[in-house]
Amino acid sequence: MTTEMQEIAITEEKPLLPGQADPAKDAEMAARILLDQGQEHSIETPHGVLHATLHGTGNTRRPAILTFHDVGLDSKSCFDALFKFEEMQEIVKNFTVVHVDAPGQEEGAAAYPNGYQYLPMEHLAEMIPAVLQFFNFRTVIGVGVGAGAYVLSKFALSNPESVEGLVLVNIDANARGWMDWAGHKLTTLTSSVTEQILTHLFSQEEMCANTELLQSQRERISKAPNLANIELFWKSYNSRRDLTIERNSTFKCPVMLVVGDQAPYEEAAVECNSKMDPTTTSFLKMADAGGMPQLTQPAKLTEAFKYFIQGMGYMASSCMTRLSRSRTTSLSSSYSMEGSRSRSRTLSQGSQGGQLPPSPSHTMEVSC
Known about the structure:
With 368 residues, the chain is α/β, with parallel strands linked by helices. The protein is built from 15 helices and 10 strands. A 10-stranded mixed beta sheet has the order 1-2-4-3-5-6-7-8-10-9, sandwiched between helices.
C-alpha cells in the first residue's frame, strides 16, 4: 500500500509595510466618501430632467426625507449645514435622504439660452412623483424652504397618499397681490437680481447689518455661472398662484411650519398657520434665526425635526437631551393630551433655551 505525498504551497501573509495602503480600508473609505457626497442622478420627468442627490441605502420600511431648496440656492447651499450638522446624523442614519434641485439650479448647471421659458411652480410640483418612482419610494417626508416649501406643498395637496409629513420653512401660500406686484416691478428697475433675491432670503435687520453669511451669499449668487437660470426660477416663484389651503381642506399629513422671528415671510407663515388644521400642525417661530434658520440655527431646527419625526411614530427610542427631558416634564404638568386636542396652544421660551415641538396633534407657536 503506497502513500502519495502531496506538496501544499503555503503563502505567507506579510504585514503591511509602513506607508503601504490597505486595499480593504481604502475601499471602506471610498464607500464612506461616496455615501457622504451622495449619488447624483438625472431623472426624466413629464416636464424635463430633474437633478437629485441620494444619501443612504434606501430603507423602504420608512419614508424617505425629500428636500427642495429656495430661490438663489441649490440643494447643497440650502441644506448642507443642516443635514451635515452633528446632531442631525442620528436622523440621517435612520432615513434615506434625497435632495432635489429645481431645473437648472444645481451646482455646475449650464445657463439656459436667451428666451428660455422656465417652468411654472405647478409644473415643478408635478415633477416630484417621477422622483419617487425613480427611487421606488412609497412615501416621503418633505422638507422645503421658501420656493421649495411652496413646491412641496403643491405636491402634497395633489398627492396626499405619498406624503407622511411636511416641514415648511418660510412658506408663503399666497400669490403676489397688486401692491406686492407694483413694489416688485419698482425693485426690478432699481436693484440687481442678486439684491432682489437677497431681500427674499434675509431679514431687513440682516441686510442692514451686512452679516458675514449675507456677504458670502451675495458673492456666490452674483458670480454664479447659471445666474440667468436663477433669475428664471425667481420670476417663476413671483408668478405663483395661491395655495388652496383652508381649515377644512388642507394637508392630510402632519405639518411643521418654521419661520425666523424677523424673517421676510414671518407674517405670511403666521397667516398660513391660521388656515391650517390645528390638530395636525406645529408652528415653530425661531428667535435670532433671521431669514435662513436652516443655516443660522441648525441645532434648534434639528431638535425640532427630531421631535416632529418622533410624533409621527419614528425613532421612538431616540435619546432626549437633558434640556429636552426637563422641558418634557414641565410641559406634561401643564396640560393633558386628552384635553388639548381641540385647541391651539402657545408656548414662549427665551432665545437661550431650546424648544420642544409638539406632536402632530397640536398647533403650538414656539419662540426659542
